[in-house]
Amino acid sequence: MSDKYLHRPSGLDSLGDPLPSIDRVLPRRLNADPENLERGLAQLVLTIVELLRQLMERQAVRRMDDGSLSDEQVERLGQTFMALSERMAELREEFGLEEEDLNLNLGPLGNLL
Amino acid sequence: MITLYAITDHPTPPVPRLGEMRVVPSGDLAAVCGPVIKGEVTAEALWQHEQLVEALMQDRDVLPVRYGTCLPDDAAAERTLQDNHAEFAASLDTVRGAVELAVRVFAALDRAHVPTPAAAPMTGAEYLRARARSAAEESDATVIVHSPLARAARACTVARVNRPGELLRAAYLVDRDQTAPFAAHVKEIQEGNPQLRITCTGPWPPYSFAGS
After folding, report:
1. Which residues 69-108 of B have a C-beta within 8 angstroms of A?
2. Which of A1, A5, A8 to mutate to test the interface with B (most CBs of B within 10 A)?
3. Within-domain flag for A13
4. Domains and CATH numbers, chain B
5. How many angstroms separate the CA of residue A43 from the nearest CA in chain B?
6. Cut 0.80: pTM above it
7. Contact B85/B29 with Cβ under 8 angstroms?
8. Per-residue pLDDT tens for A72-97?
9. Measured distance CA(A23)–CA(A20) in Å, rounded
10. What is the ipTM for the molecules in this complex?
11. Number of compact structural domains in chain A
12. How far apart are alpha carbons B158 and A101 in whole angstroms?
């Protein structure tokens, strides 16, 4: 592998880096195999939910940044998004999905997330 | 069943004697096929696939085919080439003479704050502020690293970051003879930005630019 590094940070701190290519060799598409239909459907639904969660979280961050939220609202929104994020992680685990699985290839438009 | 490694131009140089690869031509395109890989998907099998595609890439332009793509027989491979001729030919033109370089940017270790809820109990406000910091860092990484590299590349794609502390995950389509200058460019950016850890790997087959 090391011969594939054109550049990496000095020192040992690149040890934590993931294998750069293996995730790109794995097939990345919705699994429509009848036996795995439930998982495939969960993957699709969770992808959409994750898209909405990210959009709303970004919106909340933007509103916090421009100062249009009270401290109490920031706290409440933060707790909501933290809980949503935890719940998503639980659901992913339940269906054996990785974070990277929650995406859709939109062809020429690229990936949804 | 046969497994598909890559799609390339025809005629094509002889394929390396690896993994029983052979060429199935159809018009001005060819599919490089091999016997189907049996058994479970292992990291080893993936690397073998990757190595075969990389060997092909040495002396020809290829559209790499993702691991696990199988067809019933040679006739099906020919039909696939015929049915998708326009798309394959256009994609081959896109990647002609170029390779893929992958760049990942992480926050420097002493600065990486990990905004995962599981790490430590946080208040809602702390969580939201951590998200805001990550968003700001990601946007900085885009400006500092991605923008100049994108200008030096023929094409680029940005994938979603999904690891704690990861700020940018991008792939660049770079002319074969521009690999070294591109890597030098990355080094230069790294030197000017110690707050980031930048890795650049390649050359890879142009997986991110081969269409679907």
Report:
1. 69, 101-102, 104, 106, 108
2. A8
3. no
4. 2-95 (no CATH), 98-209 (3.30.70.100)
5. 16
6. no
7. yes
8. 999 999 999 999 999 999 999 988 88
9. 7
10. 0.71
11. 1
12. 16
